[in-house]
Structure formats: structure tokens, C-alpha cells
């Protein structure tokens, strides 16, 4: 979604935000792709969801 506003000096600003309900990390700092977020935010965890098989995805399958 995109938001816009004018500041006190009358300059128009825009912000684009990505809103999602589910996200799968494909890579990153940690072995699981999520860094140490779980270590810093101690919350009860449910059983991990099964990961989809992405071995057959090619660059042509990506929407960008």
C-alpha cells in the first residue's frame, strides 16, 4: 500500500509499505534465513510448518 502526506514545510512525502499475512524467508544471515530473531524475542513457538518443496522453481517462475 502507498501513503502520502505533506510535512510542515509543504513538501509531499510518499511511503510504500508491503503488507503480508505469510512470508517464507529464502535466505539471509542465519542458517534458517531469519537471523537470531527468535533468540531476541522469546515467545512460545508452535510446531514448525512444513516447508514447501521449492527445488523445481526456475527464474522464469518468479513474478519479477
Can you describe this structure?
This protein is mainly beta and 64 residues long. Helix content is 6%, strand content 16%. It has 1 helix and 2 strands, in the order E-E-H. The protein has a two-stranded antiparallel ribbon with strand order 1-2. A hairpin with a 5-residue loop joins strand 1 (2-6) and strand 2. It starts with a strand and ends in a 24-residue tail after the last helix.
Essential attributes:
64 residues; two-stranded antiparallel ribbon; 16% strand; mainly beta; 2 strands; 6% helix
Briefly, what is this?
This protein is mainly β.
Strand-helix topology:
Elements (H helix, E strand, L loop, with lengths): L1 E5 L5 E5 L20 H4 L24
Antiparallel strand pairs: 1-2
Query: How would you sum up the global shape?
Result: flat
| Main sheet: strands, sense, barrel | 2 strands, antiparallel
Rg calculated over all Cα atoms: 18 Å
Low-confidence stretches: none
Q: Pairing-aware structural class of the strands and helices?
A: mainly beta
Number of helices: 1
Helix/strand order, N-terminal first: EEH
Helical content band: under 10%
The percent range for strand residues is: 15-25%
Number of strands: 2
**Could you tell me the mean pLDDT?**
78
**Numbering strands along the chain, what is their spatial order in the largest sheet?**
1-2
- Terminal Cα span: 18 Å
Amino acid at each position: 500500500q502507498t501513503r502520502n502526506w505533506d510535512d510542515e514545510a509543504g513538501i509531499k512525502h510518499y511511503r510504500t509499505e508491503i503488507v503480508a499475512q505469510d512470508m517464507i524467508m529464502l535466505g539471509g544471515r542465519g542458517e534458517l534465513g531469519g537471523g537470531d530473531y527468535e533468540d531476541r524475542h522469546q515467545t512460545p513457538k508452535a510446531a514448525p510448518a512444513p516447508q514447501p518443496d521449492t527445488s523445481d522453481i526456475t527464474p522464469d517462475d518468479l513474478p519479477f
